[in-house]
Design goal:
mainly alpha; MetI-like fold; 2 domains; 12 helices; extended
Length: 287
């Protein structure tokens, strides 16, 4: 009888633990349900839908012509190439600029560092359309800064900073990218242990060796993570460019050649949904 009582108590304990585990996992599943629904409806379903539609023409006939066009037609080739170049250039500017600002921010007192990082978070809350018009007012052909520089140095009206070319577009997006990289790298610099640097110096390491074997290995994962976030965002950026140069200039090869999002908008406006699906999927691969 004592053995049976012990076994019964053990079984009851196991049942109680099993019930608690079921309740715990049920609660977790319930909390994860909104996230799963959001990802399924706004991420997985659109990608699967695009992948399915990309194999059909406008008459719903199965075809590979849409993918052939995406890789052979000059307008789509130019769009994908320009998007890759633009994303790489904007990410590089933002990555280098944000890293230097973060390195300076962590050396400030905590009060001023928090204030600086708080101010740097503001640009990421602004609409791309608002930022585009702000830059047009400041650096457009007749913008405030261009007028001041021309009057100060007696330059003709034909001399101005061209906001509507590659350097100007990259600079506008750096307004978003540098603060984003600063916030990412500030945490990485704060986690850099000064004792490691001091230990390397005490062991006779030269400055370049300290950077090569201590600092860079610690900073590199965070730097690459920040760069990947920026690159993925720039691959889908089109609102600010559209507000700056307009659809006509975006779609003109002689001015600012198109990026995939702007070219996709052109396809959608013309009712050619099937043409837009393959470049959309191609665009997501680097991200």
């Amino acid at each position: 009888m004592p053995g049976m009582s012990a076994m019964t108590a053990a079984l009851r304990g196991i049942r109680g633990e099993a019930r608690q585990a079921i309740r715990f996992f049920s609660l977790e599943a319930l909390l994860l349900l909104p996230f799963v629904l959001f990802v399924g409806l706004f991420e997985i379903y659109p990608i699967l839908n695009m992948a399915y539609r990309s194999f059909f023409d406008l008459d719903n006939n199965f075809t590979f012509e849409n993918y052939i066009n995406a890789f052979t037609k000059p307008q789509f080739q130019m769009a994908i190439r320009n998007s890759l170049l633009f994303a790489a250039a904007a990410s590089l500017v933002g990555g280098v600029g944000g890293t230097f600002v973060a390195a300076l921010a962590v050396r400030l007192p905590a009060r001023w560092r928090n204030l600086l990082l708080s101010l740097y978070a503001l640009p990421m809350t602004l609409s791309g359309l608002v930022v585009a018009f702000a830059f047009i007012v400041l650096l457009g052909r007749n913008g405030v800064l261009n007028l001041l520089v021309r009057r100060a140095f007696g330059l003709p009206p034909t001399v101005y900073f061209n906001l509507y070319d590659w350097p100007g577009i990259v600079m506008v997006y750096a307004f978003f990218q540098i603060p984003l990289m600063t916030l990412s790298m500030a945490a990485v610099f704060e986690n850099l242990d000064p004792n490691l640097i001091e230990a390397a110096r005490n062991l006779g390491a030269r400055p370049w060796q300290v950077w090569r074997y201590v600092v860079i290995p610690v900073l590199l994962p965070g730097f690459l993570a920040g760069m990947s976030i920026q690159f993925a965002g720039m691959m889908g950026a089109f609102g600010t460019v559209l507000a700056l140069v307009g659809m006509a200039k975006i779609c003109s090869p002689c001015r600012f050649t198109p990026t995939p999002p702007s070219r996709l908008i052109t396809c959608l406006r013309r009712g050619r949904w099937r043409w837009a699906d393959p470049p959309s999927l191609v665009q997501r691969w680097p991200c």
